[in-house]
Design brief:
The protein is 5% helix and 60% strand. It has 5 helices and 49 strands.
Length: 764
């Protein structure tokens, strides 16, 4: 009976497919040959529509003999063509960028965006990101992400971000499909992503498609440029603290392209002349992106991409008879080898081999005349090897099916402390393994179906099945996902979603600013994976051909099996990380988000507002009572605007406001006499995170002066960070003022005053 039903199912699909013809192909930028992601392709007045995937491919089944095909993408001229569909059609399309003279052209094709069942997701173009005023001249992707509703920053100057009550490790950050475990340079002030090498950024906060897994709160999917297929091109910049250069072009025109982009700071070089002669100290970070793209045929393409980054702080003081030396270093390395294959006009596949590594080390060495040599080092590492196979199948116009499988081999090295020294002329060399290497096998299967039921209803439903295996433990998880859209009219829709997520790896952090000493650890037999369940309801409306976009969403999320350091514990404790954590924690987050966005015209940008609550509960923290999470912020407002006066001059501004961060405040001190009659001073605190820092707000400004030259284009950027010099709190501390009365005052530490910067940007 089951075989008969399956055969009948295939027969029905086959019959529908015979009644339809397929239009498929790749959509690229006409000037560069770069594939375009998320381009809208549809037939006006019908339910036939789709978008391009990550590699610019689309497949659309149309049940009419003739049809008008419309292709639309923000920033590009709209393309339309009348088709005669007496057979399947291969149609590759090159889109032309829209010029300033085309602002008056009415673009109505972006209705597909409102018709999508996907919610809690937003795309940012590099143009959007580069329009935001830069901190010290460095355009930063994650700082732009922090300006979106539902996303909060980890604090002043940091690149950590918190999505709908989640912690930083609950964000899956993908660079060309490869996980990045630490996205910070300069102790969190900048991210590792060089905007000149990036093509597209998509943030998903809820309603996760089944193809994503392994994190609880968000997916940040970043795609690298593929390189110019048409001609050689370069761009770069020189700023106050760093410079960068990007080169791209064809190796074989229209067949093979490359891109290479490098960046390095020179803080260490600039500071060295001001240091004493017997001191050598400095800090720098650098990174390199590279990618090669080759088209074997219309059906086969190969991509090879690489990212490497490093941060290093060092200090060495030399004096008569000895020296003191210290160093801190951390960095990421990722790589991906990807093969795209088009089986036919309905079936597309993507096979990817991945590598990712994050490592940090802290070390010190000391030698003094007459004393012994001492050397210490602490380091931690996570390394991944992965293989993933993804399929996209469009059997009929009403169904677009994605399915696939993935395997990742994790190698965790949570911490090793090494000691070398001399005692009475005898060399001593010891290694203390704070935690043994942990090997795990992380696999998943998924399937999702984007189903257009009728002109009003569209659903994306699927399931993500995970298996996580260690030496002595195996965890399994089935995570259902569903998103639905009801279309009120062509530009107004109602949406809802439910998503279940499971996370098998955790980040142990002593602070909320994402220091490189934070430890990535695996679920074990004693530490269960974390889980979340999230529901969301919302509405999206586009106005004036998607010139304006308005969205409203409400969400509710629960989290289980959270972990956190015990009070007073740290990464350098010698008892092993499992003995230093509180586990089985619970979390709750709920709120509402509002976004109004202007996508086209001389003035673009958005205004976002978030109303949110987020709580945590651990049996052994705060006496078992629920407490506000550190980044429980009731109100968050962001205003992002850019205006183009002429082709030679444009400006940008951002203004942000956020309720003060929750913290635990000291309320009294008293003396305690111990058993040895020693008097110790004890501080009494309020409930955990029971108080709040003052509200945070800041205005940033930026101006760009452009000039065309005989060799290309140059731009002078002038930016002002914290334009009205707001003294925002970084943290508070208690200082004794009167020792006779033991009275104390609370003082505030602020990091950044008003900071102007200038940078020179060029392209050729």
């Amino acid at each position: 009976m089951k075989k008969l039903s399956f055969a009948l199912f295939l027969f029905c699909f086959s019959g529908l497919a015979l009644a339809q013809n397929t239009v498929s192909g790749y959509i690229t930028d006409a000037s560069t040959g770069e594939s375009l992601i998320g381009v809208n392709i549809f037939v006006p007045g019908s339910s036939y529509g789709t978008t391009t995937n990550t590699y610019g491919f689309y497949s659309l089944n149309i049940g009419h003999k003739t049809a008008e095909l419309v292709v639309s993408y923000i920033g590009y001229q709209t393309y339309s063509k009348n088709l005669v569909l007496d057979k399947n059609l291969e149609l590759d399309i090159e889109l032309q960028e829209a010029s300033t003279e085309l602002n008056a052209v009415e673009i109505t094709a972006d209705e597909i965006q409102s018709r999508s069942p996907q919610m809690s997701s937003i795309n940012l173009s590099i143009k959007d990101i580069k329009s935001v005023p830069a901190f010290l001249g460095e355009v930063d992707i994650i700082k732009t992400i922090q300006l979106l509703p539902g996303v909060q920053s980890g604090g002043e100057g940091t690149t950590g971000f918190y999505v709908r009550g989640g912690s930083p490790d609950q964000n899956l950050i993908l660079l060309d499909g490869v996980p990045v475990y630490n996205a910070s340079h300069l102790f969190g002030f900048f991210s590792v992503f060089n905007a000149d090498a990036i093509k597209n950024v998509q943030l998903t906060k809820g309603g996760f498609p089944a193809r994503y897994g392994g994190r609880l709160s968000s997916v940040l999917d970043i795609s690298l440029k593929e390189g110019n297929m048409k001609e050689f091109h370069g761009e770069g910049s020189v700023g106050l603290i760093s410079s960068k250069l990007t080169l791209e072009g064809p190796i074989w025109k229209d067949k093979t392209s490359y891109i290479i982009s490098g960046r390095r700071t020179y803080i260490d070089v600039l500071s060295q002349p001001f240091l004493p002669a017997d001191t050598k100290a400095g800090y720098f970070f650098g990174d390199l992106n590279a990618k090669v793209n080759h088209i074997f045929s219309r059906k086969d393409r190969l991509f090879l991409s690489y990212y490497g980054g490093i941060d290093k702080f060092y200090n060495k003081d030399t004096y008569s008879g000895g020296y003191d030396e210290a160093a801190l270093q951390w960095g990421n390395n990722t790589g991906a080898l990807r093969w795209n294959h088009l089986y036919n006009d309905k079936l597309f596949s993507n096979l990817t081999a991945t590598y990712s590594q994050y490592e940090f080390s802290i070390g010190g060495e000391s030698k003094q005349d007459g004393f012994d040599l001492e050397k210490q080092e602490y380091f931690s590492r996570i390394r991944d090897y992965g293989l993933r196979l993804d399929y996209e199948y469009s059997p009929v116009s009403d169904h677009n099916i994605k399915f696939g499988a993935s395997y990742t081999h994790h190698i965790f090295k949570p911490g090793v402390f090494q000691f070398q020294g001399e005692e009475d002329g005898v060399n001593v060399d010891s290694v203390l393994n704070l935690s043994e290497n942990t090997l795990s096998h992380d696999s998943y299967l998924y399937i999702e179906d984007d189903w257009t039921i009728n002109n009003k209803w569209r659903i994306n439903a699927g399931a993500h099945f995970s298996i996580y295996n260690l030496k002595d433990q195996t965890y399994t998880s089935i995570q259902p996902r569903v998103s639905a859209r009801y279309l009120i009219d062509d530009e107004w829709s109602l949406k809802g979603s439910f998503a279940s997520m499971t996370q098998f790896i955790h980040l142990l952090s002593n602070s909320g600013i994402g220091l490189p000493t934070d430890l990535w650890v695996s679920s074990t037999a004693n530490v269960a994976p974390s889980n979340s369940h999230q529901v969301a309801l919302g509405s999206t409306r586009n106005f004036q051909g998607n010139t304006w976009e308005l969205s409203v969403e409400a969400y509710y999320k629960t989290m289980d099996n959270l972990i956190e350091y015990k009070e007073g514990a740290s990464f350098i404790s010698g008892s092993g990380w499992e003995n230093n954590i509180e586990k089985n924690g619970k979390g709750e987050a709920y709120g509402a988000e509002f976004l109004i966005r202007k996508n086209k015209g001389k003035t673009t940008g958005w205004i976002g507002y978030t109303l949110a609550w987020t709580n945590r509960q651990f049996d052994n923290l705060n006496f078992g009572e629920t407490f506000a999470y550190k980044y429980d912020r009731r109100h968050d407002i962001s205003v992002v605007l850019s205006h183009k006066f002429t082709d030679k001059f444009d400006i940008g501004l951002t203004w942000v406001y956020g309720t003060g961060v929750a913290f635990t405040a000291p309320i009294s001190k008293f003396n305690v006499i111990g058993n040895d009659d020693n008097v110790q001073q004890v501080t009494h605190y309020t409930e955990r995170n029971g108080e709040r820092l003052p509200a945070y707000h800041r205005l940033d400004l930026g101006m760009n002066f452009h000039k065309e030259t005989s060799w290309g284009k140059r731009t002078f950027n002038i930016s002002v960070y914290n334009a009205y010099n707001r003294q925002n709190p970084y943290f508070l501390y208690v200082q004794n003022q009167d020792f006779s009365t033991n009275k104390s005052v609370v003082k505030q530490v602020s990091l950044f005053p008003i900071i102007p910067s200038i940078s020179y940007i060029f392209s050729f």
